[in-house]
Amino acid sequence: MSAASDVGHHAQRQARWHFGEAAFWLVVLACGFLFPSRYLIMTDILRLALFAMSLDLILGYAGIVSLGHAAFFGVGAYAAGLLALHGIINEPVLALIAAGLAAMVLGFATSFLVIRGVDLTRLMVTLGIALLLEALAERFSNVTGGTDGLQGIEMQPILGAIPFDMFGKAGFFYSLAVLFVLFLLARRIVHSPFGLSLRAIKNNPLRAAAIGIPVNRRLIAIYTLAAFYAGIAGALFTQTTAIASLDVFAFDRSADLMLVLVIGGTGYLYGGLIGAVIFRMLQEVFSTITPQYWQFWIGLVLVVIVLVGRQRLHYGVLFLPNLLIKQIAGRKAVVSVPESDT
Amino acid sequence: MTSILTNLFDGVAYGMLLFVLACGLAVTLGLMNFVNLAHGAFAMAGGYVCMVLVNRMGWPFFAALPLAFVSSAAIGIVLERTLYRHLYTRSHLDQVLFTIGLTFMSVAAVDYIQGSSRVFINLPAALQGQFDVFGVGIGRYRLMIIVICGLLTIGLQMVLAKTRFGSRLRAAVDDPRAASGLGINVPQVFAFTFAFGCGLAGLGGALSAEILGLDPYFPLKFMIYFLIVVTVGGSSSITGPFLASLLLGIGDVAGKYYVPKMGPFVIYTMMIVILIWRPNGLFGRTAAR
User: Fold this and answer.
1) Residue range(s) defining the domain that contains residue A222
2) pLDDT above 60 (res A340)
3) Does residue A297 form part of some domain?
4) Is there a contact between A291 and B116 (Cβ–Cβ < 8 Å)?
């Protein structure tokens, strides 16, 4: 077998659906039926998961560190809010796509700034863009509603048939459907030759350029795509909560997102989903213990994770499940988190 | 005309203050290549120590300032020895996560201990009010800031350029391996510099309570300003960050005075443009490291 076909073979095997993945999604769907009184928080988790998946696309696959991902979330949120408020696009799914496209345009425009420079410049530029947008949203408070936020948003039924109910049931399944569709798309993309080339760029941009990968164009493409995802997450936020306020741009949102991905692990798409669940649960626990000071404990979790080492932590968490899997299904089925951060 | 001069004066005072706050970060971020987003927390610590000493224990303001420096430096050296030094070799992502975590912790901890409202330090009467020089209003407090920060800047430049420690630091930064080969204790030099930078931040925090406002969210609110100073100013000398601070201070004060509605917009745009134009900072070295 030649080297090229060997690589292709491995890539294809990686891309195949595993039993565990199907089980994961079945469990998520089952949650929707098992906990009917928890729709609001579960919807929240789904939104966060989608947002985290968006960051995973650029951080885990392309190695772009961003401190201002909330910018796209915010643009999506406001776009969806304004579209619904002024009755421009009443149908939620179309509005969702339109809001995603709005964020995508911003992502494309700013990607040229982001691909320049090293990690540190990127951090600063992404942070700066998010702060800039927050300042803009505050400045044009006649459009955005300022600190009060957009109020009086009324959502029309989804696809003209399913109305949003007050228990959040429709919102939950709507979010779940959106998340699943976008997950399928992301999964297809990261396992495509395009996705493989991103990994090559992440590992070594110079070498990737030497074998003929157009590094900058690929980075622009994935950054734009991630912006689209984040915009959709933001739009979901507005549509399911019927509010959009200045805090969609807040730095805390970008920082929390980092924590979500760190908990879940980067570079295998499920990191954001798993991280979102654990993060929200941690947040719930901390805010029941100390309603005002939960941020302290979140900070402590971050510090501890970094000090222990992300790789070691994931190894430790997966140790027991892997031991079981090894007994049942043999060595090859062992789960591992591809930890390939810069 | 006089309003321009008054604004210029306020801008210079503001810029000087930013320089004292941020020059510690210039060393850790620019020279040691460590992304320390928690720098503002050290400034906040200094500010709160000063506040407690002056307001609650009745210390004179000028006696409390050095103690703000010492306490922040002490916190800095303890954290450097126990936590930070493990992260020098880690990726930027790890450093960012770690320091964001520290910042969150400091915000919540100060909120818990001192409450979330803004605090003021009782100033001696001699520092309050302003006097006129040829019709230009000069605030006494701001004048004091310019004097203190100006002296500090000159002192820092002298230490870096003329003393043995300064040349050791420059050597350690330029090439840590060669420097340690020459018998320079690089970790010690870094630890000392880190602590000194934190101390300066603490002093800046104490001085800034009057102008920037001191509350538990200080580290988050001003993080971006410190980062701007360092990234725009570059890290080859302390002149770069100094000029960048002055630029930022004057730009911010003028922006808030003349185009109040645009607010911080001007600053962020300036930063992004400069970073795109000169990724290594306005006064930075062009050589990539």
Assistant:
1) 38-251
2) no
3) no
4) no
Q: What is the pLDDT of residues A290-321, one digit of tens each?
A: 888 888 988 898 899 888 887 777 777 777 77
- Under 8 Å between Cβ of A204 and A342: no
Residues B53, B69: contact at Cβ < 8 Å?
no
A109 or A150, which is more confident? A109
Residues contacting B35, CB < 8 A, separation 6+: A120, A123, B29, B92, B95, B96, B99
- Rounded CA gap, A223 and A112, in Å? 10
- The C-alpha atoms of residue B205 and residue B213 are separated, in whole angstroms, by 9
Q: Cβ separation of A113 and B272 shorter than 8 Å?
A: yes
Q: Which pLDDT band holds residue B237 (cuts at 50, 70, 90)? A: confident
Task: Please tell me if residue B171 touches chain A, with a CB cutoff of 8 Å.
Answer: no
Instruction: Give contacts of B 14-43 with A, CB under 8 A.
Output: 29, 35
Which of A108, A34, A115 is closest to A75 using CA atoms? A108
Is residue B289 predicted with pLDDT exceeding 50? Answer: no
Alpha-carbon span A198 to B53, nearest angstrom: 55
Q: How many domains does chain A have?
A: 1
Is A255 in the B-facing interface, judged by CB distances under 8 Å? yes
Q: Contact A264/A55 with Cβ under 8 angstroms?
A: no
pLDDT, position B212: 84
A91 and A164 Cβ atoms separated by less than 8 Å: no
Residue A274 lies in a domain: no
Chain B residues inside the 8 Å CB shell of A255: 100, 104
Task: Determine the residue type at A67.
Answer: L
Q: How far apart are CA A21 and CA B75, in angstroms?
A: 47
Q: Of the ranges A307-311, A316-320, A331-335, B142-146, which is most confident?
A: B142-146
Cβ–Cβ of B261/A310 closer than 8 Å? no
Comparing CA positions, the residue from A182, A342, A176 lying closest to residue A267 is A342
Q: Please tell me the distance from the alpha carbon of residue A167 to that of residue A179, in angstroms, as a whole number.
A: 20
Which DSSP helix (H) or strand (E) runs through B130?
Answer: strand B130-133
Structural tokens at position A237 = 């936020």
Residue B241 sits in a domain of what CATH number? 1.10.3470
A40 touches chain B (CB under 8 A): no
Mutate to test the interface with B, among A69, A120, A122, A298 (most CBs of B within 10 A): A120
CA of B109 to nearest chain A CA: how many angstroms apart?
7
Q: Is residue B66 part of a domain?
A: yes
**Token pair of A342 as six digits:** 């810069």
In a domain, B107, yes or no: yes
Q: How confident is the model over A85-99, as a mean pLDDT?
A: 90
pLDDT at residue B265 greater than cutoff 90: no
| Domain span at B57 | 2-277
Q: What's the CA gap between A242 and A40, in Å, rounded?
A: 13
Residue A283 lies in a domain: no
CB B81 within 8 A of CB B239: no
Task: Give mean pLDDT, residues A70-89.
Answer: 91
Q: Measure the CA–CA gap between B19 and B16, rounded to whole angstroms.
A: 5
Q: Is residue A327 part of a domain?
A: no
Residue with the bigger pLDDT between A277 and B3: it is A277
**Is residue B231 less than 8 Å (CB to CB) from chain A?**
yes
